[in-house]
Amino acid sequence: MADDAASASDEDASAGAASPPRPCAELPPSNTRAAPARGILRPAAPAAPPRTGRGAALLWAMQTRLTAPSVPGGGLWNSVVQRFSRKDGPATALEAEALALRRVHFRSEDLAHTYPICGTTAPSAEAATRERIEHEAHERALRLDARAWTPAELQSLYRVCCRAREEVPSMPVLRALEQAAAWADARTRTLDFAGLDLRGASVPLADMLSAPTGVHVLHLDRCRLDDAGVTALARAVYSARTVHTLTLAANPDVHVAGWRMVGTLLSAAPHLQHLDVSEHVFSAAALRALLSPWDAPACTLESLRLEACTLASGAWDVLAQAVRCGAVRHLSLRRHTLRSHARTALAGLLRDYEAGAAASISAWEQTCEATVDDLYLHAEENEVETALLHGTDAVAQAAARRERVASLVARARAFQHALSELPRLGHLLTLDLKGHALGDDIDALATALRRNRTLRVLALGECDVGAGGLARIAQALEYNTTLETLDLSSNPCGGPDLQGVLGLRIALGMHPRLRRVLFRHTRLSSAGAVALAECLPDTSLLHLDLAHNALGLVGLLALWTGLQRNTSLRCLDVSVDADDESMRIARNIYEHCRAKNEADASSAHARFLEKSVLAAAVASIGRP
Fold first, then answer.
1. All domains of the chain in start order, with CATH
2. How far is 480 from 85, CA to CA, in rounded Å?
3. What is the reported pTM?
4. Which tens digit of pLDDT belongs to each residue from 226-251?
């Protein structure tokens, strides 16, 4: 009887517990959420001994309850237990502990809502339904984009987006959305978030910008964005399809992944035309990720700002190649520190032909090159000053000068005709190099300018270009026939050495398309002003800026005399001394230019005249 009770109790004990569970197959890793740090269920019940008899059960229970945490996996006691236990039991205490823990992981991409079909009529065709939904969405987007959103509507939309993301709305962002109050009367709808810390608020802001709010200009300068924030905002700009100007300057936490997303945006967003990524450090890989989509058919980017950036040596070659292959028209590279390799790559920005054609172009240059004498140099001392100030310029001298100019122009056109046989690469129209320490070592840049066929605007302000550098640029302009605007402001190239000014007046007298020359803050003296005044009757200039230079009374008189013989100049800007004679000449210059602008109602240079230093000086006459 006692043996039967003991057997029954042993069978009950063995039946009351289950054998250790087998390890389950692990789920594949989730794409949206990492595995939880710990389980959310209670540990399972202690493992039961196998059904192999009373002795094995006793040994198994003793190992599980007493010795499992302290007995090493290779001990003698563990070997004895394994001999009496089943083969499918846990081999070590670590395996037993791992099998005792349970974990559950819900993958969000597997969750779905199921909606019951409810309707009195049969569903229509899938294509018709899709067309109807897309048409309704398009009409709604046009209706929302046609009107200007109010600040209250934008703030309400932003709060809804924050609530959906379970985030607290950012008060600086809410205050910035009040800029929409000016949208009703503005041509462009602008949202300026410059200087705001958007590290934790970029995702709900991107959700808001994805709506058809009609934003045209989006400023995200100095917002401490990282790759994730830039990715979210780039997707929002693509979804909105209205932003044509995007600024991402001074966000140092953006790296290759973020720039790759911006490059993808450029390749797929036909509405984006202007991009500012200034004040960044670009490696060759980062710049390649940004600029590689430039050759995509959908890329319509027109202007790019890369101001005050630090570019690696290989990044300059990437930029030059992208300019030649892409459709960008305006490039700003202000305030860069150039090394020897960067100077050569900078000249490569203007190379609009294949590198293999350089030898042929050099041969054409030697054929078309001519020794250009000074068109305005006479043997008699001070003859030019006398001619301009007293009107004794001989008709025969002017006729001979025109013949020499025609000969030089014919040589330049022959050179350009030879270049036209080469395929043209790139569409660069504007190159802004203001703030580069170029100095007079600009031979490569001058050579590229002489051979270029696309550039219209070249800005070389504050580049420390001296008289020698100006002379090289002037020689390049003798063969370039496409440049329209040349900015040489704030360079010590106007004096006291007149080598550059004498070369510039030859280029101005023979260049057929040069319209604007900015020459302020260049140390130009009265002698330099007289030299430039000599070429005014032959130029096609519309705007000549000589402000902030000490021209003196003689220089003003020479410019006034040359202006009277010019038929194209609409704005001549000069700085004037306070004496009566200088003010009288300044008023004559201003009235002459204003009369020309009034005669030509379509002249766009009237606004330059009204904003000039000369206009301010003339307006101050008669004031107490």
1. 13-21+40-100 (no CATH), 145-318 (3.80.10.10), 429-619 (3.80.10.10)
2. 95
3. 0.74
4. 999 999 999 999 988 889 999 999 99
